[in-house]
Amino acid sequence: MSEMNESVRNLHILRKTKSLLLSPIIMQGDFWGFVGYSHRDADYLFSETEKGILRSAGLMIASGIIRSEISSSLVQAKTMASTDSLTQLPNRNSFMMQARSILEDHRESQEEVAILFLDIDHFKDVNDQYGHQFGDEVLTRFARAIQSNIRPGDLSCRYGGEEFLIMLVRPGNLGAKRLAQRIMTTVSTLTFDKHPDFRFTTSIGLISAVPNESNTLEEFIMKSDTALYEAKNMGRKKTVVYSE
Questions:
Q1: Is 6 a catalytic residue?
Q2: 3-state DSSP call for residue 46?
Q3: Of 162, 163, 219, 244, which is the active-site residue?
Q4: Is the pLDDT of residue 118 over 90?
Q5: Nearest 5 degrees, angle CA 176-CA 177-CA 179?
Q6: Is the pLDDT of residue 231 over 60?
Q7: pLDDT at site 62
Q8: Which residue among 2, 64, 105, 136 has its CA within the 20 to 30 Å range from the CA of 235?
Q9: CA distance linking residue 164 with residue 121, whole number of Å
């Protein structure tokens, strides 16, 4: 405490202070700072009232710090719960919650919505040949390619493994196909320092429609997955639009 008092007295703002009363702020054994009274009179005696005010101020500040820390922790926990830790895209649960709300809005307004189901071609071979650490880098770069091509208000997520979803708000069929082509073009230009010759491709299935009363988000995803499966069967590196 004496060392702290000496350090405080050396502060520029307190150089003319003769009497100093400090109350440390200590939480869970850690020193966070202090509150204090200063007086120019060297013989000044602080009253019990002033000491009580100082202690109350310290408690109020400590309480404020704790509330701030809790609030920050809650925000961080919420972000972690809704975000894929590897790609930093929204995770599947977060996407599904937001996408259901958007789908309902489009059902009421009778506006079109599109779902794109994306899959990295031959991703197992990437992990087998180059290792999982490099595979993670491929996933991260793919996620960035997706995020850089969608508009504010559109949704994306890592659905699972090497599978990703995009929901386009009011896209128009041509807009969805155009986005798919932009993503494919972006992916084709990606390079990696560790493996300069490495390239990868993606297959995409999509559905674009105005949702009716019976349509669900799961149904839209299933149909885009069906289109993706067809793109895989056609040799990969393709976009297929779902049709009945």
A1: no
A2: coil
A3: 162
A4: yes
A5: 65
A6: yes
A7: 66
A8: 136
A9: 12
The rounded distance, in Å, linking the Cα atoms of 101 and 179 is: 22
Domains, the chain, ordered by start: 2-80 (no CATH), 92-241 (3.30.70.270)
Q: Look at phi and psi of residue 236 and say left if phi exceeds 0, alpha if psi is from -120 to 50, else beta.
A: left
**pLDDT tens track for 129-169:** 999 999 999 999 999 999 999 999 899 999 999 999 999 99
Structure confidence by residue, pLDDT tens digits, 12-44: 445 555 566 666 666 666 666 666 656 666 666
CA distance 233 to 231: 5
What pTM was computed for the model? Answer: 0.69
Q: CA-CA distances (angstroms) from residue 212 to 42, 223, 243? A: 82, 15, 16
Distances (CA, A) of 82 to 74, 87, 94, 217: 12, 12, 5, 19
Quick one: the chain helix, strand, coil %, rounded to 5?
A: 50, 25, 25
Question: What does the block give as tokens for 166?
Answer: 């995009």
Torsion on CA atoms 137, 139, 141, 144, rounded to nearest 10:
-140
